[in-house]
Design brief:
Helix 9 (426-435) runs parallel beside helix 10. The chain has a five-stranded antiparallel sheet, with helices on one face. The chain is of the alpha/beta class and 513 residues long. The protein is 45% helix and 20% strand. The chain contains twelve helices and 17 strands. The protein folds into three domains: 4-97, PAS domain (Beta-Lactamase, 2-Layer Sandwich), CATH 3.30.450.20; 226-372, Heat Shock Protein 90; 383-508, 3-Layer(aba) Sandwich (Rossmann fold). The longest helix has 83 residues, at 99-181.
């Protein structure tokens, strides 16, 4: 170490500490003082005085014992540190500036206090986090239960509505065919009555589908299933369904067609039909005079659809609101669920389209959307294909607990060249399969004694691989996936047309004519 370094260190420390000094004898009288003692407020300390009368921290001190006082307050309020050093019967008192040490101590204490506060806050936050996690877990459980209840409710509603509608529509179609076979004119009252029943039933079915689709859209359970569709047939069906509604309000229903008469395209017919019924139905509902126009055009594999009305129109402030579920324009006096437009827009988006709405209040509304719709082979006669019967007679085991629907399906299948055996539950179906062989099993899901799921499982476990087609009122995707996982070969949703049964059977058993 250089010889000058200790001197420099001592000089630096002396400047920082600025020590003052006094010496006391055995009786605590002052015998000597430094010149800077007054800087710490000890101006009254002079030689010969009793130090204990002027310096509180010396009271009771043993002059023969060394003592350190880290930080005390001097008379002028400055923090100082004290060192008491006995020497040959006297007591040396060293007083040094402790402001730097005191400030550091204050900062450390403040930091310690802050750390303590942070620890307390951390404990509070951890407690809140644990409580939030517990609440989140509870709410997740509630949401899962709510989702389960919703699915159960939708399944129940679907079954309770679709089952009787299947019977109503099916028997009504049988009656219509019977009347048509009698070559009755279209103006015949019985024909008018059966047409009215069919329209009302289809309208009720569309309302049920809207309600069910609202829940299925939220659950992400709607799929798009395109197939070849003849545009003229689709538009003619819409006209037949909607014209009586327009006639009842004494407004014109206009159909604009911009496609070849035999044009066929690849789309999800049921979803496009549902969207058009919702939109055109709204247009007719809110039009009291004038007309509603349904325009359908196909060009460059794009299907352009437009519904134009001369109704009450929509206020600008309501244009965004009408897209919300359950929202309806106030003071119109028009009843409805408020679901049609919201569901229509979401289904259009699922099909890859976008719905646009243009409206002028008091003058009318135009709703339009476009879909990708590749053209299919126009030479295919779609109507004939859907009405075809089995080329060779097939044997079908019908498992259905609703006797009205069973009777209806038996009649329709027998007309389509099928031999049908009917049983009312899965247990009887298993017994029938042990006695006889069948080309196809047509089965409901919800049945007493033994339902469809358990029946399929037992069939496959027993090594029976007869094709099984589910015919059910449950519109839930989860039900379809479960049935497919168990080994079913097809899934049809009630109301079922015989053409649907024939078409799916054609794929898994025998070809059609």
């Amino acid at each position: 170490m250089p010889q000058s370094l200790p001197d420099n260190i001592n000089q630096t420390l002396m400047q920082r500490l600025n020590p003052a000094y006094l010496r006391l004898d055995a009786t605590m009288k002052v015998t000597q003082t430094s010149s800077n003692l007054s800087e710490y407020g000890f101006a009254d300390i002079t030689e010969g005085v009793d130090a204990t009368e002027h310096i509180d921290f010396l009271v009771g001190v043993d002059p023969a014992q060394a003592l350190s006082l880290p930080v005390v307050a001097s008379p002028n309020g400055h923090p100082v540190c004290i060192e008491l050093l006995p020497e040959q019967g006297d007591l040396n008192v060293i007083i040094a500036d402790a402001r730097e040490q005191f400030d550091l101590q204050q900062k450390l204490q403040q930091k310690a206090n802050e750390n303590q506060l942070l620890l307390e806050k951390q404990r509070t936050l951890l407690g809140e986090l644990h409580a939030a996690k517990a609440e989140l877990a509870r709410r997740n459980t509630e949401l899962e239960e709510a989702s389960r209840l919703q699915s159960s409710f939708l399944s129940g509603v679907s079954h309770e509505f679709r089952t009787p509608l299947t019977s109503i529509l099916g028997h009504n179609d049988l009656l219509r065919k019977s009347l048509a076979a009698e070559t009755r004119p279209k103006s015949d009252k019985k024909q008018i009555y059966t047409d009215a029943v069919r329209r009302a039933s289809q309208h009720l079915l569309s309302l049920v589908e809207n309600l069910l689709d609202h829940g299925k859209l939220d659950a992400g359970e709607i799929t798009i299933n395109p197939r070849p569709v003849q545009l003229s047939t689709l538009q003619n069906d819409l006209e037949m369904l909607l014209r009586p509604l327009a006639d009842a309000k004494q407004i014109d229903l206009l159909m604009q067609r911009q496609y070849p008469v035999d044009e066929s395209v690849y789309i999800d017919e049921s979803r496009v039909r549902q969207c058009l019924i919702n939109l055109a139905g709204n247009a007719i509902k809110f039009t009291d005079k004038g007309s509603v126009t349904i325009s359908m055009a196909h060009k460059d594999d794009e299907l352009q659809l437009r519904i134009l009305d001369t109704g009450i129109g929509i206020k600008k402030e309501d244009l965004a609101k009408i897209r919300q579920p359950f929202w309806q324009v106030a003071d119109t006096g028009k009843a409805g669920t408020g679901l049609g437009l919201s569901i229509t827009e979401r289904i259009i988006e699922l099909m890859g389209g976008e719905m646009t709405i243009q409206s002028e209040y008091g003058r009318g509304t135009e709703v339009s959307f476009s879909l990708n719709a590749p053209a299919t082979d126009a030479s295919i006669n779609l109507d004939q294909a859907r009405e075809a019967a089995f080329k060779d007679q097939v044997s079908i085991l019908l498992t259905e607990d609703d006797l009205d629907i069973a009777q209806l399906v038996v009649i329709l299948l027998e007309e389509a060249n099928a031999k049908v055996t009917h049983v009312e539950n899965g247990e009887l179906a298993l017994q029938a399969l042990q006695r006889d062989s069948f080309d196809l099993v047509l089965m409901d899901l919800n049945m007493p004694i033994m339902g469809g799921y358990e029946t399929i499982r037992r069939m496959r476990d027993d090594g029976n691989h007869t094709p099984v087609v589910i015919m059910t009122a449950s519109a839930l995707e989860a039900d379809m996936h479960k049935a497919q996982a168990l080994g079913c070969d097809g899934y049809l949703l009630k109301p079922v047309e015989v053409a649907d049964i024939v078409a799916i059977a054609d794929q898994i058993i025998v070809p059609l004519e």
